[in-house]
Amino acid sequence: MAGDLRRRRPAGAADAGGEEEGDGGAEAAAKAGPPSGGEEAGRGRKEALGWLEWSRGWMGVVGEFFFQRIAASHLANPLELPPLDGVSIIVTGATSGIGLEIARQLAQAGAHLVMAVRRPKVARELIQKWQNEQTEVSMPLNIEVMELDLISLDSVARFADTWNARMAPLHVLINNAGIFTIGEPQRFTKDGYEEHMQVNHLAPALLAMLLLPSLIRGSPSRIINVNSVMHTIGFVDAEDMNLTSGKHKYRSWLGYSNSKLAQVKFSSIFHKRIPAEAGVHIVCASPGIVHTNVARDLPKILVAGYRLIPYFIFDPQEGSRSTLFAASDPQVPEYCETLKSEDWPVCACINYDCNPMNASEEAHDLETSQLVWEKTLEMIGLPSDALEKLIEGEPVQCRYGQQKAE
Question: Where is the composition biased (Low complexity) (predicted)?
Fold first, then answer.
């Protein structure tokens, strides 16, 4: 299907900027220009992407837009999945777009699917629809619905507490849900964080950390983060993750791209620090440029463009393939361990064509990734030694949800 992952590795970091793809809406920000702040602050700390890195990132976005369908032409649509009976999988944002397709196909492959969603009623209606589409001889779908709202870190902590209380194994966590409020003014959640950063990075990071005990029970298990090519034009200042310092003028595309880069950086340190014996593997998967609900927020002329050029843009079923591959292919855990043993600086990344890909050059900076890791733990209310304690089975106090993960 996609070759042998175990015999492959990403291209070198020097090729980073244009080797990946992301979710729908990427091209909407192309005309906005690079973030303010300059390429370097003299000889001091880097404060923004340089023009070369930024330009390379946008070249990658444009190139993938025109050639993603050709590059992925070898893939079946829908992707053929192995039997998943007995495999427990949580999918966030499972009622629309890519998440809906991911959930539907996993359920039909026999997985015990948990739809973690803001609108449980919509999820139950989808389950009924899918069940009605099953043939008379098919087994009933094994799906349940749990409420989860990433705009609230309390909701994330309560969700994890409810699941962990079952003392049941979790085999795959798919952090799919995300937002891109194109052209909208800067907004903050009740937790005090910029919306893109919380929904796309902080909440999924908290969910993954708090569910670690259940993922260890389900070992070998996987955390799959649905990422985006937009991370290639992002730059994360660990001391300004809310973009409130004034060093960078807020733009919606900047908030989005920074959140996606933060996710890659956090995932990379997570990948490096979790011991092999824990059996939890972390992957960032890029779905390609996909026509999803994000297009509803685009200017009318761009919405019309989406409809006029369907050949270039993936539909949600096509966009679901890289995540489904990352969640189900038996080669993925070994590939993750290979990168760890080779001390590769970035977690495993799977491209929209189900092949290994490289993250951006900025994602390879381990020093700033470590800062993002530490700041993220602080922002999501976990102690700096939370990972080590959770791996050892010790309780960890979380500031949100008034819960302990055990």
Answer: 26-38
> Which candidate, 68, 404, 401, 391, places its Cα nearest to that of 228?
68
Measured over the CA atoms of residue 224, residue 175, residue 125 and residue 96, the dihedral's sign is negative
51 CB neighbour count, 10 Å cutoff:
11
Is 352 designated active site? Answer: no
* Cβ neighbour number for residue 390 with a 10 Å cutoff: 23
CB 29 within 8 A of CB 258: no
pTM of the predicted model as reported, rounded to 2 decimal places: 0.89
Fold designation for 45-392: Rossmann fold (3.40.50)
- What pLDDT score was predicted for residue 41? 41
Question: How far is the C-alpha of 365 from the C-alpha of 348, rounded, in Å?
Answer: 15
| Amino acid, single-letter form, for residue 173 | L
Distances (CA, A) of 229 to 62, 280, 303, 360: 10, 25, 20, 9
Residue 316 tokens read as: 């949600």
Q: How far apart are CA 272 and CA 387, in angstroms?
A: 12
Q: What is the mean pLDDT of each run of 10 residues along the chain (406 residues)?
A: 58 39 41 50 67 89 88 95 97 97 97 98 97 78 98 98 97 96 92 98 98 98 96 95 92 94 98 96 95 57 59 91 98 95 94 96 96 98 98 95 62
- Three-state SS string over the chain comes to CCCCHHHCCCCCHHHHHHCCCCCCCHHHHHHHCCCCCCCCCCCCCCCCCCHHHHHHHHHHHHHHHHHHHHHCCCCCCCCCCCCCCCCEEEEECCCCHHHHHHHHHHHHCCCEEEEEECCHHHHHHHHHHHHHHCCCCCCCCCEEEEECCCCCHHHHHHHHHHHHCCCCCCCEEEECCCCCCCCCCCCECCCCCEHHHHHHHHHHHHHHHHCHHHHHHCCCEEEEEECCHHHHHCCCCCCCCCCCCCCCCCCHHHHHHHHHHHHHHHHHHHHHHCCHHHCEEEEEECCCCECCHHHHHCCHHHHHHHHHCCCCCECHHHHCHHHHHHHHCCCHHHHHHHHHHCCCCCCEEECCCCCECCCCCHHHCHHHHHHHHHHHHHHCCCCCCHHHHHHCCCCEECCCCCCEEC
